[in-house]
Amino acid sequence: MKKVSKTLTRRSFIERSGTVATGLTLLSGSVVTGNDHLPPAVDDRCAFIYKTPNGTLKDNSVIWNEGIFYLFTMYGQEEMKGNDSLFNSVWLATSTDGVHWKDVGTVIKGQPFAVWSLSVWKAGNRFIMNHGSNSPGDILRFWQSKDLLNWEFLGEDFVVRKPGGERLDCMNVLSIEKEGQTQWYGYATGGLLRSQDGVKWQWKEEFRLSDPNWKITEAGGCAMIGSKYYVTSGWVQALPGDFNYSTLTFVSDHPEGPFQPDFEAFRLNGHSGLITVALWARFCQLPDEMLITNYIVDIHTATPTWWHAPMKKAIVDEQGHLRMGYWKGNEAIKGSPIPIKPHKCTQLFPLLDHQNSSEEKNITYNGDSVRFSRQPGANPSYIGYADPRTTVVILNEQFDIRKGFVFEGRMKVDPLNQGILTKGIPAIGLFLEEQPREGTAILFHTCHLTELGTIRLGEDAHFDCKDRIGFGCAAVAGIKEGLASEFRLLFRNDTFELYLNDLLVQTYFTSGATGRIGFIVRDGEAVLDNFKAWEMNL
Question: Concatenated DSSP letters for 374-396?
């Protein structure tokens, strides 16, 4: 049995997720409030996008080889949910397109020691796997295979321990060709490792960091992209002001460091509020592109169950910042098209008898374009600005949330007034209905801020922010005025991923979604068009 640590880790945090009342963020003036939005438990749920038929996966890792994706994951039986010390197997699923997965089963089963986070790489003519384990104390154990299906334990001679018995877990491997030789680097929870052949490893040192105020804690992935070296690291309350577990990005010009926090896009993924929905970031190298794989916590079940999430494209922008983007391979998830009739869109808020201007009573249509607006209030200046005015419209279509759907379109928001003290802060977003006049809202503000939370439409439009994306986040923070931006919504079983201009916004959840989608504007004019939708074919 693994010795219990007093330190709060990703494992212990996820087990406790949802038990703490309040989180606070420093990114804007409102507070991220408690767990009143937690959904009821639901059984027999279809995954978004893959789960094991029994038990649960966790800490997924994908390797591509000769046209096939191999998804390896630590694995526990049904009764093991929420207790990492009882994970003692490795599960494998395969896919030819990276979207539709076929169960292979347990390729390493029922070991007398723990099998935790793992990774797989090729060394010569064989594949090597390492995983975190216990002895007691966290250590690394190693396996080898010729075909990725049949695995042989390399034995205790290959076990790696960190001096002093400190935690050593979750090593990711990078091989670099230099002067005709392969140099092997291992990036683990616990520091940097080196190897002569990619098989036999030694712990070398703690990670070198350019800023001593930061630490690579739970190493998730490593990759060389362009001329830079990227290491991802997860931890709770990692970004100042955030409550939840986040994955951070560190970058260096050299494989051994020193590594610098990428402050402008530091939080690669994660959540500022109470609830963990998606976490982790590992790399999967394809012949012509680099992917990122992570997993989703299905918070709609009574005990934690984890899903393999849609894979993302690793995007490095002109400034060298790593971001998670939409992978074109996910087009394979699209099944039968769903016709959209935007001209049947109706206004949900404000109600007609609450409107003060005839300009706010009508939605206008032009082909598949929907245009609607809301004037700012009497005092919209930035000094004391606290009363945005909102309009919500909703499509007539009702999507099948259990089968899942993909919904795409384009959005643009413009101010109605041009003066900086009179135009307010225009915002635009999506509304995912859960009850009559209530649902989850995703708001793109024109001030480098995206907010997700619950909106209730009564006498006024009351928005409770639950999660926030702003400065320091690699995800999309806000929208530019007057710029038409394309969105993609992937939705299944009250869990969704949203992209704007093919960059990940967030993975989040609804509570009892009805399958109806609406649009929101605040203090400005919204134009939405180019709608397309498909059923998921999972």
Answer: E---S---STT-----EEEEE-S
